[in-house]
Amino acid sequence: MLTETQEKVLLILLDDKGHAGWDLAENLKMKDSNLNPILKELTRLGIIYQGEARKSRKQQRREGDYKEFPYYLNNNLDSLKIMIREIARGTKVWDTGFVLQITIKSKYIKSMREKFREDLTKTIADELRESYPPYVDPRFKSLLQFLLENGLSAPFLEDDLGESVDAVKYMKMMPRRSELEFWYQEYLQMLSSLRPSRSKKA
Hints:
The chain has helices at 4-13, 21-28, 32-45, 77-88, 93-104, 107-116, 118-131, 133-136, 140-149, 167-173, 179-194, and strands spanning 48-50, 54-55, 67-68, 71-73. The chain has a two-stranded antiparallel ribbon with strand order 1-4. It has one domain (4-192). It is mainly alpha-helical.
């Protein structure tokens, strides 16, 4: 079971670009010293790992060649299984569904699918059937019938795992967005504002 901060770390790392500790701390508005134990626990679980040194992307006031060691999500099926299991066992079912939804549509999963193909789909589907509360609940068949009758697809079933959940429809069903969703939207907006604008050719 992951904490909300751990879920935020995973959401950031889903872009498959690698993020150094200082970068994660800034995006989470935390001190490095407070984030380090969280990263160590995710590493211990086998969900993330620290990659090789690269030139630091952090702005430096002094000249010099600064290195950083970015964190990545592990790119093997055993680690993916652990990650899906830990996400699925979250205490807040809506947050769990939201994190799973973003995960399935991520660049990380896209790269994993290119590598593992059908095995990836089966791994995720099998783990969710065993761990995700709505699927474990014996009332799931009734829920599935309700979704089908209302034109909604049930996420993460093996047959339609490649299809994304329609987030807009789900949000209409929810009374409000969670704090995790608000944070993620702010994070995406921040990234968008940092992207250089395209200059028109002269």
